[in-house]
Amino acid sequence: MPPRFVLRILADFNDGAIDASTAQDILVSVNSASMSCGATTLSILQMEISRQNRTRQRSTGLIPLEVWETALLENKAHLRPAPPSSLLDLHLSLRAMRRVNNDQTIDFEGKNYEIATTARKSVAIIHHPNRRFWVLEQIPKNVWPCVLGSFSL
Questions:
Q1: Measuring CA to CA, which residue among 8, 15, 149, 145 is closest to residue 90?
Q2: Pairing mode, if any, of strands 105-108 and 111-114?
Q3: pLDDT tens across 10-28, in order?
Q4: Contact 129, 32 (CB under 8 A)
């Protein structure tokens, strides 16, 4: 992904032109399509995170890094543990819904895929662009629901 493209997405996000989930979806899909520039993308994102942590927030008037350092000094800092590695596929993915055909198949990216039998009329797709996707009975929260199919692209 060209650095100027990443910077444009971040500028749109900072200006309120797009929300966080839209920015994440764009970055996940474009970065997956061009893995050769992945390191550049990550370094730009890290610079943006660092900048955001040093910028006074309009809503609170506080600087996040200073708030965190104060909480550490006062022994009030708490972090939630990272999700189990088995859930990273859920967090780092695109999501979509698909209709289940009468023959227990779904159509995805111009192809037809057979899935396990389900009574549901529609199913959730967890998608890693150009790599693989999973067909689930419902959109996941913090655990993997019933997997009806797993396919490589």
A1: 145
A2: antiparallel
A3: 665 555 555 566 666 666 6
A4: yes
| Nearest-angstrom CA–CA distance, 22 and 146 | 26
Domain boundaries, the chain: 3-73, 85-152
Centre a 10 Å sphere on the Cβ of residue 76 and count the other Cβ atoms it contains. 8
What are the CA-CA distances from residue 149 to residues 32, 108, 113, 114, 123 (Å)? 21, 12, 9, 8, 11
Q: Which of 33, 10, 32 is nearest to 22 (CA)?
A: 10
Token pair recorded at residue 143: 């655990």
pLDDT digits (tens, 9 = 90+) for 50-100: 888 888 888 889 998 899 899 889 988 888 777 777 777 777 788 889 999
Coarse DSSP helix, strand, coil percentages of the chain, rounded to the nearest 5 percent: 40, 20, 40
